[in-house]
Amino acid sequence: MSKGPEIFSNIGKKARDLLTAGYSSDQKFTVSTYSGPAGIALTSTAVNKGGLSTSDIGAVYKYKSHIFDVKIDTLSNIATNLTFSDVLPSTKAVVSFKLPDYNSGKLEVQYFHHHATFTSTVALHQQSPVVDASVTVGTPAIAFGAETGYNTTSGSFTKYTAGISITKPDAYASVILGDKGDTITASYAHFLDESKRSAAVGEIMRRFSTNENTFTVGGSHAIDHLTLIKGKLNNHGKLAALLQHEVIPKSLMTISGEIDTKALDKHPKLGIALALKP
To answer: Where in or outside the cell (predicted)?
Structure first.
């Protein structure tokens, strides 16, 4: 793939991940096994969410640049993602579907160029197929993009979004106009070390229809090469913190919690995740 601008769905992702990745109020246990760098990876996951327990088993097979990903859950749902890279030059195709929901199929095509990227997604829905398309232009340092969705049955646009991102070695900024122009979100992340495990981040979102502003600040800090802490607070009083520790090589234990500082009588949310890898 070319060294061009990021795809539109990745605009703002670096800041979003700092503010959201790893935080959870569920209890999750994951075990993974591998049969080699280019073989099959098997994953078993059990999740307790609000007293409801679910589990799934997944398998990922890599052949050259192609990836076959299948997951089966306790309700006998089968989720499949097939990724084909470089079948055509600078192109990636992703086919996804869930069974027994035969109308859940999607086909996504991504094209990468030195100064532009293009994605198109077709929902293989028999009654009301929807087509999404996005384009970004620029360089790895600065990118402008837009995304739209169109319902071919009703002849109406389901969404339209625009955004810009600026990327530097130690900083990342983005502005996204979304929800059909109803919201604007600006974010900025500054990385404090080369590994980008220590960072400060801020995000502000305004919803024009309700005149509501949401401002969130957060950050992450690597205490050492095994332990990472994160925290965030927004203007609505939601305070969250996370501790992640590598208990054994490649295996992580994550403990996260959230409290509402404006309603301390409410029970705090607590999540624990353990991911074991060979």
So the answer is: Membrane
